[in-house]
C-alpha cells in the first residue's frame, strides 16, 4: 500500500478502495488439495445446470418485522455515517421487505430509490468464478489446469491451479501495485481492458508458495477472467450475458467498464477519512472481472439465491465451492471458492471506490438479504456487511421466528 502523501493522495484513494473492494471490494478459503478431490471437470458432453429467474416471495413481511428490519438498518447507517442505502429481505412463504434510505447524492440532495443501479464491486468475483465452474462442469477445462496454460508470465504459473486462483490460495502478487498506480495517475479516466489489468500481475514476486496460505487477491479473479475468454473465444462481458444474466433475466445487471454506461440517476460513492465523507470518482474499469459489475436490488436477490443454492452448477461442484477457510479479509467467517460464508449464510461482499455491498442466501431457511451502500473504507467496519449481519440477526431473534 502506498504511503499517505500529497503526491499520491488521489491515487491512494482509488487504490485503497479497490483493495478493500476486493478484499473488504473488498477479501480465501480451504479447498481440497489437488488429488484429494476430483477437479478434472465433468464429461465433455455434460451440460451445465440451467435455471430461470426465481420469483420473489409473494406479499410483504409482517409490519412488526419490517419495523425491526428498518430499525436495524437505520442503526448501522447512523453508526457508520452512511449517506444512503438500498436493502431487501426475502423469506420464502412469508414475504418481502425492501427499503431505500438516505441520500444517493449529498451534493444534489438526491434520495435513494429501490430501482437504482449500484456498483457491487467484489460480488463480481462470485459471477466470474461461477462461470469458471460452469466450464469445468462442461469439461471445457479442469480446475487442476495451471494458469500458464492460458496466461503467460505469471510467477509460479506452472504450479498455480485454476482452483487455487478461485479459492485465493495462489500466492499471486496483486496488480494494484506501484507500477499500476503510477500508470493510473497519468490518466485516471482511462478505460482499462482486462488484458491491461492482467499485464500488471505478471512477473511479480509471489506472496507465498501456491497452496501454502489463503489470501484474498484481486489479480486471481482477473486471471480467471482471462481464462474464461481464452476457453470460450469470447469477451468476458459476452460470456457473462450468455451464461448468467440473460438466463436469469438480470436486465438491471451489467459488466460496466465505461462509467458513461451507468444508468442514471445513480448514487455517488463516498470515501470516509478522518470522519469526513468525500465523493469518489468512478472508474470501474480498474476492477475488471474482480469487481466491475453493477446491479439492482431485485437482481441482487436473484443472484443471492442462485449463488447460495448452486442452481447454475452440478451438485458436486457446489459442494466443492462451499469448502472454505478463514482468511484475513474481507469480513466472512470463511471464504470458499468465489463465495463467502457467514453462519448459515453464503454469498459475497464488495467494497471500494465509495461503495459497499452484501448479497447473501441462507441455506437453512432459503431467505435472501441484499444491502447496497454508498460508503466505503470506513476504518471501523464494512458498513454493508454490518447491515447484512444486523438484518440476519433480526431474522434469527426477532419477529421473523
UniProtKB/TrEMBL annotation:
Alphabetical UniProt keywords: Signal
Gene3D superfamilies: DD-peptidase/beta-lactamase superfamily
Origin superkingdom: Bacteria
Signal peptide stretch: 1-35
Stretches the record annotates as Disordered: 33-61
Database matches in Pfam families: Beta-lactamase (PF00144)
UniProt keyword annotation of Zinc-finger present: no
Biased amino acid composition, Polar residues: 33-51
Organism: Leucobacter rhizosphaerae
Domain annotation Beta-lactamase-related: ranges: 70-393
InterPro entries given in the database record: AmpC-like, Beta-lactam-related, Beta-lactam/transpept-like
Protein name (record): Beta-lactamase family protein
Amino acid at each position: 500500500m502506498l504511503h499517505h502523501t500529497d503526491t499520491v493522495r488521489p491515487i491512494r484513494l482509488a487504490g485503497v478502495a479497490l483493495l478493500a473492494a476486493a478484499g473488504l471490494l473488498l477479501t480465501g478459503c480451504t479447498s481440497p488439495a489437488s488429488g484429494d478431490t476430483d477437479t478434472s471437470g465433468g464429461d465433455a458432453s455434460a451440460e451445465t445446470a440451467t435455471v430461470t429467474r426465481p420469483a420473489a416471495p409473494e406479499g410483504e413481511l409482517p409490519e412488526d418485522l419490517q419495523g425491526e428490519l428498518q430499525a436495524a438498518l437505520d442503526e448501522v447507517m447512523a453508526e457508520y455515517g452512511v449517506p444512503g442505502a438500498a436493502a431487501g429481505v426475502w423469506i420464502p412463504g412469508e414475504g418481502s421487505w425492501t427499503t431505500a434510505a438516505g441520500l444517493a447524492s449529498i451534493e444534489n440532495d438526491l434520495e435513494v430509490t429501490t430501482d437504482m443501479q449500484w456498483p457491487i464491486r467484489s460480488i463480481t468475483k462470485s459471477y466470474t468464478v461461477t462461470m469458471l465452474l460452469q466450464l469445468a462442469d462442461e469439461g471445457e477445462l479442469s480446475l487442476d489446469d495451471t494458469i500458464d496454460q492460458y496466461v503467460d508470465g505469471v510467477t509460479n504459473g506452472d504450479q498455480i491451479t485454476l482452483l487455487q486462483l478461485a479459492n485465493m490460495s495462489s500466492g499471486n502478487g496483486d496488480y494494484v501495485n506501484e507500477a499500476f498506480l503510477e500508470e493510473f495517475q497519468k490518466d485516471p479516466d482511462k478505460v482499462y481492458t482486462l488484458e491491461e489489468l492482467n499485464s500488471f500481475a505478471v512477473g511479480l514476486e509471489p506472496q507465498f508458495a501456491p497452496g501454502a496460505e489463503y489470501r484474498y487477491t484481486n489479480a486471481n479473479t482477473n486471471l480467471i477472467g482471462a481464462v474464461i475468454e481464452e476457453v470460450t473465444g469470447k469477451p468476458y462481458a459476452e460470456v457473462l450475458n450468455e451464461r448468467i444474466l440473460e438466463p436469469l433475466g438480470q436486465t438491471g445487471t451489467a459488466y460496466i467498464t465505461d462509467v458513461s454506461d451507468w444508468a442514471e440517476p445513480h448514487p455517488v460513492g463516498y470515501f470516509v477519512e478522518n470522519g469526513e465523507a468525500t465523493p469518489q470518482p468512478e472508474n470501474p474499469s480498474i476492477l475488471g472481472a474482480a469487481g466491475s459489475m453493477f446491479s439492482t436490488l431485485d437482481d441482487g436477490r436473484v443472484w443471492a439465491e442462485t449463488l447460495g443454492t448452486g442452481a447454475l452448477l452440478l451438485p458436486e461442484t457446489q459442494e466443492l465451492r462451499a469448502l472454505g477457510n478463514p482468511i484475513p479479509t474481507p469480513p466472512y467467517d470463511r471464504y470458499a471458492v468465489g463465495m463467502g460464508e457467514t453462519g448459515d449464510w453464503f454469498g459475497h461482499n464488495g467494497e471500494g471506490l465509495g461503495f459497499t455491498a452484501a448479497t447473501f442466501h441462507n441455506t437453512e431457511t432459503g431467505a435472501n438479504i441484499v444491502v447496497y451502500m454508498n460508503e466505503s473504507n470506513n476504518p471501523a467496519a464494512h458498513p454493508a456487511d454490518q447491515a447484512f449481519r444486523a438484518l440476519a440477526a433480526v431474522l434469527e431473534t426477532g419477529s421473523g421466528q
